[in-house]
Amino acid sequence: MEQIFALDIGTRLVMGLILEKTPEGYEILARAQKEHRHRAMYDGQIHDIQAVADAVKAVKEELEEQIQKPLKQVSVAAAGRALKTTLGKAHKTEIFPMVWEKEEVIALEMEAVQQALRDIKTEEEDIPYHCVGYSVIESLLDGQNLTSLVGQRGKEVSITVIATFLPRTVIDGLTAVISRVGLEMKDLTLEPIAAGRAAIPADMRRMNLALVDVGAGTSDFGITRDGSFFAYGMVPMAGDEITERICQEFLLDFQAGEKIKRSLRSKKKIIFTDFLGQKNVVSREEVSEIIAPVVMELAKKIAKEIFRLNGGSPHAVILIGGGSLTPHLPEALAEVLNLPKNRVGIQIRERIQGITGEKALRGPDAITPIGIGISAL
């Protein structure tokens, strides 16, 4: 069976998985993760190629040791920094009814993506863009909307896609890191496209749901309706701003502030030494109160983007990513979106059906790397 090396290069953490397709779903054969030694990425953009490459190399070597064979290709996803999205359409008519096979449908999808790219080039003449993924939002056969055209018989087909594009500079940074550790890029997609495959089952996509991947540097969006993802977006704010507020309040370096933020999930009393050597003891409630204005600001920015993409509040919001564990973020989002509190929740690996292996891999930050592997397979 084919095995996929899925790599999630995050602003704070690099996580790698080896996945294999099974009759029941997907099995995680191995996993490894490594934090960047210092802030080598900001808002999803690689600033220090070598530092990020060092983290990727450590993950690669650990996985090779676990599976006892070298890794040569990798599937990755890009954060939606400077993301452009646009619709593309393609249409084809035959004289006589024919059976539309998979290859012909994919060719028509590619034609729709090319149309979207031409529109992007018209808008941004001086900036080269690269397609990082697309979703089919409408498939018409003789005027009837179908979930899939493959195997269907008819004379006239029309496909509409929403295609996503990133500037070449974002892609070139990923390529530089991957090539520096002796890997070849097998697949590239957009983080919310990958995460959506894992987090929201196909039959749930008929609802109007907002998937929000809250990472360290960016919060990436995918919104579903009528059976597919129809919109993608990003705001350049996430968990790092929460950490920075803690650092400012208690005079800490970034790593110490990050440690305090994570300890809010489990500790009632937090003990630390500040940059000037003073020992401090604070309660979880005190820290939560200090970061509350930043949490609300993040919630408002996420809600504003959801309103822009969706034209109103969705039926529910599904949060993933390490930043989704920020205290009171779900409640703040429910408030600004005017949703009941039980309509904003966190998706975790334990609730995803059809994923076996690596039981220790838990929580919302495992969703995107799993989705990358599913997308590649």
Characterization of the model:
The chain is an alpha/beta fold. The protein has 3 domains: 142 residues, ATPase, nucleotide binding domain (Nucleotidyltransferase, domain 5, 2-Layer Sandwich), CATH 3.30.420; 83 residues, 2-Layer Sandwich (Dna Ligase, domain 1), CATH 3.30.1490.110; 107 residues, 2-Layer Sandwich (Nucleotidyltransferase, domain 5). The strands form 5 sheets. A 6-stranded mixed sheet has the order 11-6-1-2-3-19, with helices on both faces. Helix 4 packs across helix 9, helix 5 runs antiparallel to helix 7 and helix 7 runs parallel beside helix 8. The longest helix is centred in the C-terminal third of the chain and has 27 residues. The model has no long low-confidence stretch (mean pLDDT 90).
Please write out the topology.
Elements: E1 3-9, E2 13-22, E3 25-35, E4 41-42, E5 45-46, H1 49-67, E6 73-78, E7 84-99, H2 102-123, E8 129-141, E9 144-145, E10 153-167, H3 168-180, E11 184-190, H4 191-199, E12 209-214, E13 219-225, E14 228-235, H5 239-250, H6 254-263, E15 269-273, E16 279-283, H7 284-310, E17 316-320, H8 329-337, E18 344-346, E19 355-356, H9 367-376
Parallel strand pairs: 1-6, 3-19, 6-11, 12-17, 17-18
Antiparallel strand pairs: 1-2, 2-3, 4-5, 7-10, 8-9, 8-10, 12-13, 13-14, 15-16
